[in-house]
Structures are given as structure tokens and as C-alpha cells.
Specification:
Blueprint lengths: L1 H6 L5 E6 L5 E3 L13 E6 L22 H13 L4 H13 L3 H7 L10 H4 L1
Antiparallel strand pairs: 1-2, 1-3
């Protein structure tokens, strides 16, 4: 996402690029938020985007201004599924319980979907 900002020909803000780890952060700051380095460089950048087509992210909620880094994380989780109905149901269940994508990704293999009645389960 951040590389898209830096590559824009219509710059309207500035971004700092860490010369040590490559982390890019919009707006003014002097220290890299990832590695703590002070070896950063100020570059012209762009900051605006809008998402107009977001099919295929269910059960996650995507809006026009969703964070692109989070969308990439969501897509990685969805792509990692075996696409069985159980996996999709497990993802839907976990996304209703947790807002943290890392937790959802870690727990997806732990969910077992039981197709039957409560009596059968007992």
C-alpha cells in the first residue's frame, strides 16, 4: 500500500521512508515506527484512495476506506482456506468473535463444525 503512495504522480502530502528497513509512513515524523532508526528520508506522496469493488471478502466487512494492509491480511486468510464449507463456516464463526485478524488466522484450524442436533452432539 505505501509503495502506491510514494509512486503517485499527484503528491499532496509527505511520507518518511526508512533507509534501513524500508518502512513507509505518511506525515511528519523523524524516527521509523518499525525499527526505530533515525535514518529516514522525506518524499512527496499521495494519501487518498477509495475501494469501490470488494467482492469475495465475506465474512469480513470491507468499506470504501478500509485499510489496505488489513485487506491484504484478510485476503491472505481467505486464500489460505481449503475452500470447504467447514472452513468458510469456521472463518465466519471466528470473524464474529474476534476483530483481530492474527487471532482469526491462528484459530482457524482449531474450529470444528458439527452438523447435527444438540442431542446428537451430547
Amino acid at each position: 500500500m505505501a509503495k502506491l503512495y510514494i509512486a503517485s504522480s499527484d503528491s499532496n502530502v509527505s511520507a518518511r521512508v526508512c533507509q534501513d528497513c524500508g518502512h513507509i509512513k505518511l506525515y511528519e515524523h523523524s524516527i521509523c515506527h518499525d525499527c526505530g532508526s533515525e535514518n529516514t528520508r522525506l518524499l512527496p506522496s499521495a494519501e487518498e484512495y477509495a475501494i469501490h469493488d470488494h467482492e469475495g471478502f465475506a465474512p469480513f466487512t470491507v468499506s470504501e476506506y478500509s485499510n489496505i494492509d488489513e485487506l491484504v491480511h484478510m485476503a491472505d486468510i481467505i486464500i489460505g482456506l481449503d475452500r470447504s464449507e467447514n472452513s468458510i463456516q469456521a472463518l465466519s464463526f471466528l470473524s464474529g468473535l474476534y476483530g483481530d485478524l492474527d487471532i482469526i488466522k491462528d484459530k482457524i484450524d482449531d474450529v470444528q463444525i458439527f452438523h447435527g442436533t444438540r442431542t446428537d452432539y451430547a
